[in-house]
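cache lookup: miss for this entity combination. No prior model stored, computing from scratch. Input as submitted by user K.M.:
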Amino acid sequence: MNKIKTNKGFTLVEMLVSTAIGAIILAALFISFVMFKRSYELQREMTRGQENGRMVLDFMVEEIRNAGYKDFNKGSPVPINQAVILETPNYNSNPSGSLPADCGEQISVIYDTVPSQRDMNKWNFVRRKVEYYGQPYSPGGQASLARCRLMRHQCHYAFVVATSTFSKINSNSNYPCEEEKVLDYLYELSFALSDYKYDHFAGRLNPLTRGPKTSFNYASNTCINNFKDNIACGQYSIRARTIDMYLSIISGNEISSIPDDPSDNPDKGRRFLTHYNSTMVLRNL
Amino acid sequence: MKRNNTNICSRGVSIIEALLAAVVVGIGFVSVYTMATTATRMIYNSSQRDNDTLSISMIMDDLAIDRFALADSAYHDSISSSQYNNLNLTGTCNIDPNNVPAKKKDRQFKRWCNFLNMKKGGMGSPGASGSSSDQRKMYVRNVTLTSNGYIQKYKVIGLRIEHYSRNRNQKKYYRKTLHE
């Protein structure tokens, strides 16, 4: 009898109560897990946006600021007749989700660099042409993954005094002619080209109000060809003194914990946008 | 007597004890959750501060490099302490893009003010928390130093930012010195 009493086990009430407590703890654990997961996703996307935006902004600004820099070539610089142009964006036919209506305005700049010591005997200086542009991209052709990415195309041209000519540098890793991916999930890239009075003459960003402009004045085909041939482009006869830039990056994933902001991001799902503004005063123009 | 002792040793936990334990565990969960949300908010704030710093450095660069077009007197004002000191960039500064001011200082003021007020990539509209209001002000001071008989003139440009709204309790002073 004593043995039976000692090993009697739990009563039904004890079992029900312990099960209920266990269930509450499990539910709390599950909810916490979901919250931590959302928080982690949000933090990851915010940090990525911040890191990528800062990085891209830094080197784009550094590069664009150099526009028009002429190496003095022993006192007689070879002129850069058109240092910067702005081209029309690549428009997207079916924008949705992370794919915006267009992949941003395209900017090209030209400036000189001094060759490395090894190449100084061959070339007096090297002229660099760089273009930043947004390009639509769908990995594996999947429309659901469509987005824009920021590309950079650069080529180098060596100047030889003896012949007073430029020649394109090929197969030289120090002076590449290549296209490379700079940033994934680009959402907007806008510029404003202004003269020294901040009078806007190209681009869709208004430098005074930072709002949109209606007249974009993108370079015509003639102007683009002139730019490539170092011929002044009449369309951009006003010299750019300041270039304002607006860049935004969209998060790669939808994050369920982000509240939709109707004034900011009405139709992009629950994605996080990171915005960056900058301005460049061009010292060489 | 022996039976009673055995029962006391093997009786497990009471409902009160179990509930208490659950409450303690719950408090633990709430603490960790609060930590996670605080971390998210801090990252968001750091992103905002990053934008603040970028916006300020843009204005400072703009001012530091902008020493041109002196001949255009209808437009140009030198960066003088009388013109630029105490420039208040806090208030409303929207303008009609088709009717922009003629003088450089006024254009710069509008441009900077709008830039700082931008929600996207700027600081957003100035807010307030309690009795403290956000402040964004520019200071320009003339400094003259004489060393070894040479007079050196400098301008010290400063931007003072005080933010109390949007979970940002920060006071920052950005400064740049220009040699004349």
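stored under new cache key. Chain B touches chain A through 52 residues (CB under 8 Å).
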